[in-house]
């Protein structure tokens, strides 16, 4: 009787924690939170709600710790985590590969000048919130004596080809799917359908799960009969920047963008 009872329990169906099959590894300020939240609409996906920072900052915490940060999943489900800081980290690519050489990597990119200004706006606002001294304006930090400060982090993070090279040194290009962040804003389902395909999941996320919120001017989600939009730090107005700065930066990024397009064998509408 004992053994027949045991055999009735489907152990595999019990929820458990599992390492992520897919990681959103960047890029910061390109829509990483929107992408993660939209993916959580899929019945086969559970997400780690907080950024985990294991492969860049918390490696010494060990794999058990990493696993403990993952959501509980059912047998048919996969877990997904996002940590935008992985993209610019030197160690993250080889560490992810060491843990799971079959990991699927999701990279969301956005027009690089807008990304840089969004990045700066976040840093500016965070300082303000912490009552720290006011940050100089973007125009003065990004360009000095007519020269673009390529080492300034909001500028360097947008030089996508510099960073993607490290990943392609280690991962097969087929392991990396690039999401067009500008299109995720305009047409989320189109981008999500491609992600589902890349993750080898059924096409599940559909029109009935998202809606356009004309006050927020972004798509939001319908989940468990609730309407959910991202918080006010997503899609906020940017700090003012002169047209001249924008023009100079567009010129600066032009060859870098071309290099990125060549490496990933795909173009975006930035140049
Ligand atoms: P801005 O605040 O510059 O507009 P991340 O989550 O990686 O920090 O990215 C933030 C960006 O996500 C926002 O940048 C916003 O443009 C973009 N985004 C994309 N889809 C969004 C959505 N549905 N709701 C809010 N923001 C969205």
Automatic annotation (TrEMBL):
This is Sulfotransferase domain-containing protein. 3'-phosphoadenylyl sulfate binds at residues 29-33, 110, 118, 219, 234-238. The keyword Disulfide bond applies. The active site is at residue 29. The keyword Glycoprotein applies. One of its GO terms (molecular function) is [heparan sulfate]-glucosamine 3-sulfotransferase activity. Keywords: Disulfide bond, Glycoprotein, Membrane, Transferase, Transmembrane, Transmembrane helix. InterPro entries: NST/OST, P-loop_NTPase, Sulfotransferase_dom. Residues 22-226 form the Sulfotransferase domain. SUPFAM superfamilies: P-loop containing nucleoside triphosphate hydrolases. Disulfide bonds join 220-229.
């Amino acid at each position: 009787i004992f053994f027949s009872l045991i055999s009735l329990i489907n152990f595999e169906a019990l929820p458990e924690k599992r390492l992520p099959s897919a990681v959103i590894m960047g890029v910061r300020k390109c829509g990483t939170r929107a992408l993660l939240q939209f993916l959580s609409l899929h019945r086969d996906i559970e997400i780690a709600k907080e950024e985990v920072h294991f492969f860049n900052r918390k490696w010494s915490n060990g794999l058990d710790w990493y696993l403990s940060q993952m959501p509980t999943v059912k047998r048919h489900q996969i877990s997904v985590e996002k940590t935008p800081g992985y993209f610019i980290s030197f160690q993250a690519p080889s560490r992810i590969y060491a843990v799971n050489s079959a990991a699927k990597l999701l990279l969301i990119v956005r027009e690089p000048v807008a990304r840089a200004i969004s990045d700066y706006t976040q840093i500016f606002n965070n300082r303000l919130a912490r009552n720290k001294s006011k940050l100089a304006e973007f125009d003065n930090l990004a360009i000095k004596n007519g020269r673009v400060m390529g080492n300034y982090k909001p500028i360097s993070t947008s030089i996508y080809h510099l960073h993607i090279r490290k990943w392609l040194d280690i991962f097969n290009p087929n392991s990396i799917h690039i999401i067009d962040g500008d299109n995720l804003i305009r047409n989320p389902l189109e981008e999500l359908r491609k992600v589902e395909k890349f993750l080898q999941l059924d096409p599940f996320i559909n029109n009935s799960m998202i809606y356009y919120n004309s006050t927020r001017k972004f798509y939001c989600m319908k989940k468990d009969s609730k309407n959910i939009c991202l918080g006010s730090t997503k899609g906020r107005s940017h700090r003012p920047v002169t047209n001249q700065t924008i023009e100079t930066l567009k010129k600066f990024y032009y060859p870098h963008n071309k290099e990125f397009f060549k490496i990933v064998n795909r173009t975006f509408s930035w140049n």
